[in-house]
Amino acid sequence: MALVTVERVQRRKVMSDPKSPIIHYLKQKSGDSKVYDLKRLSEEIETVGSLSIEDVQHVLRSFVRSMKIVLRDGNRVKIDGLGTFYITLCCPGVPTKDECTVRNIKRVNIRFKVDNVMRLVNDSIATTRAGANNVEFTLYTPKEEKDGKEPTPPTPPVPPVPPGDDEEDPIVDPTA
């Protein structure tokens, strides 16, 4: 079972409002996760298969190139056991039909919806113990707390984000 280290952090409930109350939440401890690039992922795949690193890299590059073309054409890409990639649009609402044009599209996003077999489960609340997708989380404790010393002060609140950066993009389904 995988073990992921998390830590407590503070931030404002509404990040753009300096009067908003401070809340505590958990996030993955920075520095604990690695970024797997194409080469490193290819090495991992090579260890469990019969393809060489170069073959795996070629297949993955071709996959990315083909996926970009399919998404550009407005289609979805479903990878069994992984999930579905699709595009959404960020477009503000306008009062009249004549004002609603393609020039209003501010951003095109690539979204990903995970396949159910890929979903990970928090082991501490899972209904089935030691399931294949269960992940165990451990709370990071600073060294001072372990030694019985006074813990370091909590992380200061994150500065407010400029308006608009913390708002969720309106999602427009291209198939609708």
Structure write-up:
The protein has 176 residues and is of the alpha/beta class. The strands form two sheets. It has a four-stranded mixed beta sheet, with no helix packed on it. It contains three helices and seven strands, in the order E-E-H-H-E-E-E-E-E-H.
Q: Helix- and strand-based class? A: alpha/beta
| Radius of gyration based on Cα positions | 22 Å
Quickly count the helices: 3
Low-confidence stretches: 165-169
Shape: flat
Percent range for β-strand residues: 25-35%
Q: What summary fits the major beta sheet?
A: 4 strands, mixed
How many strand units?
7
Strand order of the largest sheet: 2-1-7-6
Helical amount: 10-25%
The helix/strand series, from N terminus to C terminus, equals EEHHEEEEEH
Question: Brief description of this entry?
Answer:
The protein is α/β, with parallel strands linked by helices and 176 residues long.
Describe the SSE topology.
Blueprint: E1 2-12, E2 22-28, H1 38-48, H2 53-72, E3 77-79, E4 83-90, E5 107-114, E6 121-122, E7 134-139, H3 143-146
Parallel strand pairs: 1-7, 6-7
Antiparallel strand pairs: 1-2, 3-4, 4-5
